[in-house]
Amino acid sequence: VQLQASGGGLVQAGGSLRLSCAASGSIFSFNAMNWYRQAPGKERELVATITNGGTTNYAYSVKGRFTISRDNAKNTVYLQMNTLKPEDAAVYYCNALFYTNKGWNRYEHNYWGQGTQVTVSS
Fold first, then answer.
1. 20 to 30 Å CA-CA from 20: which of 6, 54, 116, 122?
2. Among candidate residues 98, 73, 91, the one with its CA nearest the CA of residue 35
3. Could you report the per-residue pLDDT of 90-104, keeping only the tens digit for each?
């Protein structure tokens, strides 16, 4: 599966952007779809998660401002980002996660998109 992230750009603080992550295959087979971000000099952090059951979770720093959603028919995951702050500036990556089991062991598998740059001016 290939993931193609898009929608990044330059926005003023307080503005909005919507990121999209289009998958080349079905996203329903994944346990979860995630958005991560990485700012210069910082570690990559998990921003938002949506499970194949539709459960969502957010990093505390974006809760109430960002919304993750999925369209299984279009094999696309979205991240609506509102009230953007300069500290939200980063490269945003989409991620597809699934687990496999073999015996007693559980294995995690990840696919990553190429990243899309979000710049927020103050």
1. 122
2. 91
3. 999 999 998 999 999
